[in-house]
Design goal:
The chain has 11 helices and 44 strands. It is an alpha+beta fold. Among the domains are: 55-165, 6 Propeller (Neuraminidase), CATH 2.120.10; 437-686, Alpha/Beta hydrolase fold, catalytic domain (Rossmann fold), CATH 3.40.50. A hairpin with a 6-residue loop joins strand 23 (281-287) and strand 24 (294-301). This is S9 family peptidase.
């Protein structure tokens, strides 16, 4: 008997194991270093190298050979992986020197440095468990964080010393604070100088941040985890920057804005990017590392919010600034002071700058993400087929990853200077589903929508119960030309549902006006657009949808939207599964929440409008609330408080607490049975 899809999906971490990722190209383009586990159900990630001339792969690091595959991670590393949604183990992150001759990484808290030419990895002695090690550009030193201190070790001599030591238990040096990692995609807290003799280092003090306690009710003998959580309207961690020299020097880099969004240090400039608490102003500064003096390079403002884009700032060989900013209704690539992309091409991220060329991802159609280059004179498309693409570029050699509805998994290819393509094999498992996904537009707002039908269903042969399966929140998409986004939806469809996935206002890829339509109201536009999409699809499939049986399920913002749907529109939605839902935005973090709703003390009515608590007495449809009790992102208090409000209103509902589970559910048995329990609930709820 073949393995069920829920079990296979859980065992393969949603089919991500065995997929090559984390590419680094050597400056001459001759080698590509990357991460990949040995099979599609092996959670231990290894480090590999591909010779682009001979097309031969080499295994550089196997954690099992180092007897480090059984992981004993420090709490800070567990938190970092939670922020990055990392569900695998082994070598999940690494850093190289500038020449890509050495790589460093952490395994079970130990510090390792690998010689890429010889393929030998060595464990270095450290005074504590290691977080985020990074080699100096010349490869002579490796910096790392342990116990909140930033330390540097000479790779050859083993000499190890602290450059900065925390002054209290709430202080860390060299680590990204919670908000930076969770909401700004900044996973690092220090940057090496290109000359390898100094580092720019973040000092974060969480003393002002409110203390929350995340208990494990299933194990009352264990103490609650103490968490500093900056909920909306409350203080953030205080961040500072210092240039720390290997000679012991320490130079402060002052700034006045609330948030440090990113920093970079290349041969042209030491740069920092800051953002005000209201997120309406972003400033780029150049820094004199000798004095710490800052010079304003550019300032971007927006009446709603400014967008943080990964990969910038960067510089071409001639020193020209590479930047992304919103202008004329679109997210545009700037080189120097001039936009080089049209406002109709929505730039997503800058992926690499290779001498005078910029590799970036962008969308014309919001369901597609393509690769483009700017070569100093013109825009050139890199990806030409329909799908979702990403990549890297160095030394004139590129690595291109491709996904689409027409192909299983992820295709990774090295493209050499002469155009020769060298595939990097994926070992991912095949889901074993017959996909039947149709992408299109629906509703009055022409929303990007996917309709997923059972493979066995003949169109027009009968009406199916409907399952809406959205995320629906700002800055995230579900409707992309990417098969992996619809695997769970297809499985639910095979059980007898017509599944609809729609991206409403607030989601990226359609320009700033569409994204900013959720300002001051996270509830109304999101819910209206799900109803709009449902009605639009019903017009397109008049004989296939049973609108008397419509369910909705989602996780995180999708969970919030699912609960919102049955509370406010029971005339449309007849059952809901709300996983890890935000129920009151005052309980969610500062940066995300205040970006869309402002400060709760200044706009309390906005928070009331987007909260679910006042709607508790309206519940008349079956609602299943699911929440991991160890969730430190959307804490279980969201579900528990909504449940209390529903109970006080006398409204029947179900709560499924997941002991020991965080915001993601990597546990195999939990992930499998969670899908089966949701299916059972929905079938019973819809009759």
């Amino acid at each position: 008997m073949s393995e069920s899809f829920p079990r296979l999906s859980a065992r393969t971490r949603r089919f991500t194991l065995g997929v090559p990722r984390g590419f680094t190209i050597s400056p001459d383009g001759g080698r590509v270093v990357f991460l990949r586990s040995k099979s599609g159900d092996d959670p231990v990630t290894c480090l590999w190298e591909l010779d682009t001339e001979t097309h031969v792969e080499r295994l550089i690091v196997d954690p099992r050979a180092l007897h480090a595959d059984e992981e004993d991670l420090p709490q800070e590393e567990r938190a970092r992986r939670e922020r990055s949604r990392e569900s695998a183990g082994g070598v999940v992150a690494y850093a190289t020197d500038a020449a890509v001759t050495r790589a460093c990484f952490a395994l079970s808290g130990g510090l390792y440095v690998a010689d890429l030419a010889g393929g030998q990895a060595h464990l270095l002695d450290t005074p504590g468990a290691v977080i985020d090690p990074r080699l100096s550009p010349d490869g002579r030193h490796v910096a790392y964080v342990t116990g909140g201190a930033l330390r540097v070790q000479d790779v050859l001599s083993g000499t190890d010393r602290a450059l900065a030591t925390p002054e209290s238990e709430t202080v860390t040096y060299g680590l990204a604070e919670f908000i930076a990692a969770e909401e700004m995609d900044r996973m690092r807290g220090y940057w090496w100088a290109p000359t390898s003799d100094a580092l720019l280092v973040e000092r974060a003090d969480e003393a002002p941040v409110n203390v929350w306690h995340i208990a494990d009710p299933a194990n009352p003998n264990r103490p609650a985890t103490v968490q500093r959580y900056p909920a909306a309207g409350t203080p953030n961690a205080v961040t500072e920057l210092f240039v720390l020299g290997l000679d012991g020097s320490r130079v402060a880099v002052p700034y006045t804005e609330e948030y440090l969004t990113t920093a970079s240090w290349d041969s042209h400039a030491l740069s920092i990017v800051t953002m005000t608490r209201d997120q309406k102003t972003m400033r780029l500064f150049s820094v004199d590392p000798a004095t710490g003096a800052t010079t304003l390079v550019r300032e971007d403002t927006d009446p709603a919010w400014v967008d943080i884009v990964t990969g910038v700032p960067a510089h071409l060989d001639d020193g020209s600034l590479v930047w992304v900013a919103s202008a004329d209704g679109g997210h545009r690539l700037y080189v120097g002071d001039h936009p080089v992309t049209p406002p109709t091409l929505q730039v997503r991220a800058v992926l690499d700058v290779d001498h005078d060329s910029v590799l970036f991802s962008a969308s014309g159609d919001p369901t597609e993400i393509h690769l483009w280059t700017w070569d100093g004179h013109s825009l050139l498309p890199v990806s030409t087929r329909s799908g979702v693409f990403s990549g890297r570029m160095s030394g004139g050699v590129g690595v291109l990853t491709e996904q689409s509805l027409d192909m299983e998994g992820v295709s990774a290819t090295v493209v050499k200077r002469d155009g020769t393509a060298v595939p990097i094999p994926s070992f991912a498992e095949r889901p074993g589903l017959d996909m039947r996904v149709s992408l299109g537009r629906s509703g009055r707002r022409d929303l990007a929508t996917a309709v997923v039908l059972p493979s066995w269903h003949e169109q027009g042969s009968g009406r199916l119960p409907v399952l809406m399966n959205p995320y629906g929140g700002p800055h995230a998409q579900r409707v992309l030309n990417q098969r992996s986004f619809f695997l769970e939806s297809q499985w639910f469809a095979e059980q007898g549902f017509a599944v609809i996935v729609a991206d409403g206002r607030g989601t990226p890829g359609r320009g700033t006006a569409f994204e900013r339509a959720v300002r001051d109201d996270l509830a109304t536009p999101a819910l209206e657009d799900q109803v709009d999409a449902l009605q639009g699809v019903a017009e397109q499939y008049p004989d296939d949808l049973d609108l008397t049986k419509v369910a909705i399920r989602g996780w995180s913002f999708g969970g919030y939207l699912a609960a919102l749907a049955v509370l406010r529109r029971p005339d449309v939605f007849h059952a809901a599964v709300a996983g890890a839902p935000v129920t009151d935005w005052r309980l969610y973090d500062t940066c995300y929440t205040e970006r869309y709703l402002g400060h709760p003390d200044e706009q309390p009515e906005v928070y009331e409008k987007s909260s679910l608590f006042a709607d508790a007495s309206k519940l008349e449809r079956p609602l299943l609330l699911v929440h991991g009790l160890a969730d430190d992102n959307v804490v279980a208090a969201h579900t528990l408080r909504l449940s209390s409000a529903l109970l006080a209103a006398g409204r029947r509902h179900s709560v499924l607490p997941l002991s020991g589970v965080t915001h993601i559910t990597p546990q195999e048995v939990v992930a499998e049975n969670l899908m089966l329990l949701q299916l059972d609930f929905l079938k019973q709820a819809l009759g």
